[in-house]
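User: I'm putting together a teaching handout on how sequence relates to shape, and I'd like one worked example. Could you take Nucleotide-binding protein, UspA family from Natranaeroarchaeum sulfidigenes, show the sequence you're using, and then write out its predicted structure as tokens right after it?

Assistant: Happy to. First the sequence, then the structure tokens directly below it.
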Amino acid sequence: MYDTVLVPTDGSDIASIAGEVAIAVAARFDATIEALYVSTDGSPEPSPDAQSEARNRRGQDALAKIEKRAADAAVESTTALVEANGSDPIYRTILDYADSSDTDLIVMGTHGRTGVGRIVLGSVTEQTLRESPVPVMALHENTAFSGDFDSLLVPTDGSDAAESALDHGIELALTTGATLHIISVVDVGAVAGSYNVEGVADKLREGSNEALGTAVERAEDAGVSSIESTVLTGAPGRSICEYANQHGIDTIAMGTRGLTGVERLVLGSVTERVVRRSPVPVIGTKATITSDHTS
């Protein structure tokens, strides 16, 4: 499922943690690690040559650490130090590299060093999550991950992006034999103060139950043998993270876009909140909206 795992690094602590998680994933799937350092302008060195040398030295040091850890884990690895593509944002350089290397999964931390000569890895991660056609596994400093995929969680709102995450979760469950947890969250608080609150809330519950039933049916039809499902009520981001904590979830898969309006939670923004709070890694997937869901 994952043959090539890309881990961008800026040499920061969270990038180092992302490297460890990427290596654990690669070991689980017998994949190759590709460590990437994107060199940018902004070094305090007095001359262009000194700036370039300083940036390259930092990049080589960061890449060497990941390369050594991969070797210690008996995981095959390659490294690349590339210059940012002119005025393009750093995440675009990462995505261009991922495309050229046939990456199956990008693993990134949500915080990184700031200041001259280093990328702000947190903001880059969020941009990558929004734009990447490749699944992105995001994590933060307190993320726990053992390399196991025994319990997977996929929240759904019935949107195209949620369906994309469900497809990824189904494939992951079939590949690893994991239990697939599928939930839908009724965000009643989002319509507080609205006219006919109870009527709107009932419509939300109906939509959540419909989305959940459709998702479970798809997972069953695909051959997933162990499925747990439920509808929750509450703030979506908090509810998803609490469920993950309470049920020993190893990884969460979520879409990076979702339907808007009173009928559905805005799954993209919820994904970003979950990434920041989740006790486990979050795999973000993106889908192109092809139906009338954009209304």
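A couple of points you could highlight for students: The chain has eight helices and ten strands. The first helix runs from residue 13 to 29.
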